[in-house]
Amino acid sequence: MSKKKLGYVLGALLAVSFVGPAFAGMSMENPRVSHHDRDSIRKGAEHFVQYCSGCHSVQYLRYDRLAEDTGMDAEWLEERLILEEGLEHHKPMLSAMAAEDGVNWFGTAVPDLSMTARVRGEDWIYTFLNAYFKDEDQPLGFDNWVQEATAMPHVLVHLQGTPQPVFDDNGRLVDIEVPERGEMSRREYERMTAELTAFLSYAAEPIRADRERMGIWVLLFLMVMTAVFYLLYKEYWRELKQK
Amino acid sequence: MSEQSASGLQSWIDNRFPLTSTWRYHMSEYYVPKNINFWYLFGSLSILVLVIQIVTGIWLTMYYQPSVDRAFSSVEFIMRDVEWGWLMRYLHTVGASAFFAVVYLHMFRCLLYGSYKKPRELLWIIGVLIYLVMMTEAFMGYALPWGQLSYWATQVIVALFGVVPVIGDDLVVWLQGGFLVNEATLGRLFSLHVVGLPLLLIVLVFLHIVALHHVGTSSPDGVEIKQNKDENGKPRDGIPFFPYVVIKDLVGFGIFLIIFCAIVFFAPEFFGYFIERPNLEEANPLQTPEAIHPIWYFTAWYAMLQCIPNEAFGVLVMFAGSMILLFLPWIDRGEVRSIRYRGLGYKIGLAVFIASFLILTWAGMQDPSGAPIVIARIFTAVYFGYFVFLWAYTYFGFEQTKPVPERVTDK
């Protein structure tokens, strides 16, 4: 019985997971935004509140921390980010939607996006947002090249325009084209999704940019310290060798 | 610090506590071979890392919440809301990996220069015990953030005890405090990780140093400096630990800290080797992660477990892999300690042994199917085969050694 349990645990780990596999042939694209680029993070936060935070929370990120790290003030929070009247600035970024609504509407709880950039990577988020395509067989009318049969509707379709799949002779998906653009040009849409990615990447580890700035000084200090130790070592061992 | 110049306070203390004599015995008059090299640094370094782990661990314990509901979010609280909490956490996670790195190199030094041989058998055994406690400690610490891999790794490790005959089932339930890994399990892991095992570890490290200072530091030549003393009873080829070795080790500490802090500040996840991506997702008992393997310092043992089809035998082999190290001083019958004067067979054997451990470490990170499984089987056999070879090679006198010098050699 217990041997079965071990077998079951090890076996379960080998099985294909519940996370839908990506379509074959899909390659991840890099958003090409630096995590030191505060403007992109700020714009990404604004896009996020406009298009995503209706359903998605970023439960581990507080509004005032975001303002501080992007060099913005309380006024910006009030005007652009906080939709709920009178919400205190130190509160986390929670969506207005209840968890059971997600199950009712999309068949699954809407994931919190605090850690997504660290779990799946920036490239995954950016590519995901650029990988929707029209598929009438899907309940929501769209499928996604990165995550097959995704439960998430293509909420940015009015900005991007309707993306159409391109199949090769064997019926394999090889590309996505957007014949008629939405409100944004291709470059604008890619820019916006890159900014969204930058924001989520920041949200996953707010200290990252500061940590790297600090790290340079730490390493410089340690190098000086080590050099002093080295000179001290030479001094002590010289007298030793003279003996 | 001679008796004559001892201050009033010092002699007051010395009459009540062996301060000066202890300092002399362990520091200013503890003689170390003058030609110890780079490989002798890793003992001191592992003490530095132990201190880093204890200090950062104390701070993490102030904020961490050992409950299934709050463990994951309390770690994110530390990462985001506690002042310098992120630094404490990264020092601790990188510290765990650094601990194994320096201890593996420290153990390698013992194999190079025969530091486990008479009269250092007990010193070696205490060291292997430290390694075993460290692995348990690291496994338990890995469970605490309660990410996906924390949870599933705990499932796997606890389930290993199910292969014990007759009582296996009950043992697993008893260990995890329920029929599943649960709140009670997490409480136990936390308590053992922050109190039980660190106490044991500190006691073992203390005993390790006591044993070391009793038998003395080995030398790269395998020569005992105690056998050649001057008229004052001081080893001719020895230098006092303080200040000479201390200042030399400080240079090593500096270089180590530069590498260590470069990782902490610029790549704390170390490309997914020190913090694995799936573990940044909260534990979900209903969803198995896509792929799971333990963190890098365990993967050699994990490869042994995975590559053997019979689970009970696999568990046995995995534990035997580290336990066999306890018997090394008696498996190796060779009289010559240092690799410098040992036979060619020993040199080749050791190289193959180290290669097999590295290859097993790699194999344990791969998906357990196809080539990695076959490779893991071959090198599990090579790993254990080394000990058989070493015994036969030295017991039957096949080894052609070179003459060992009377005194330590200078660089």
Give helix and strand order of chain A, one letter per element, not per position.
HHEHHEHHHEEHEEHH
What does the main sheet of chain B amount to? Answer: 2 strands, antiparallel
CATH superfamily of the largest domain in chain B: Cytochrome Bc1 Complex, Chain C
Strand content of the residues of chain A, in percent? 5-15%
How far is the first residue's CA from the last residue's CA of chain A?
71 Å
Q: Residue ranges of chain B: pLDDT <50 for 5 or more in a row?
A: none
Indicate the overall shape of chain A: extended
Could you give the count of β-strands of chain A?
6
What's the Cα radius of gyration of chain A? Answer: 24 Å
Beta-strand content bin of chain B:
under 5%
Read across the widest sheet of chain B, the strand sequence of neighbours is: 1-2
Radius of gyration of chain B: 24 Å
Could you estimate the helical fraction of the residues of chain B in percent?
A: 55-70%
Secondary-structure map with pairings?
The complex is a heterodimer of chains A (243) and B (411).
Chain A: H1 2-14, H2 38-52, E1 58-62, H3 63-69, H4 74-81, E2 92-93, H5 99-106, H6 116-119, H7 122-129, E3 132-134, E4 142-144, H8 157-160, E5 164-167, E6 173-177, H9 186-204, H10 208-242
Antiparallel strand pairs in A: 1-2, 3-4, 5-6
Helix pairs in contact in A: 2-9, 7-9
Chain B: H1 8-14, H2 19-28, E1 31-33, H3 42-63, H4 71-80, H5 85-113, H6 121-143, H7 148-160, H8 168-176, H9 183-215, E2 238-240, H10 241-266, H11 299-307, H12 311-323, H13 328-331, H14 344-363, H15 371-395
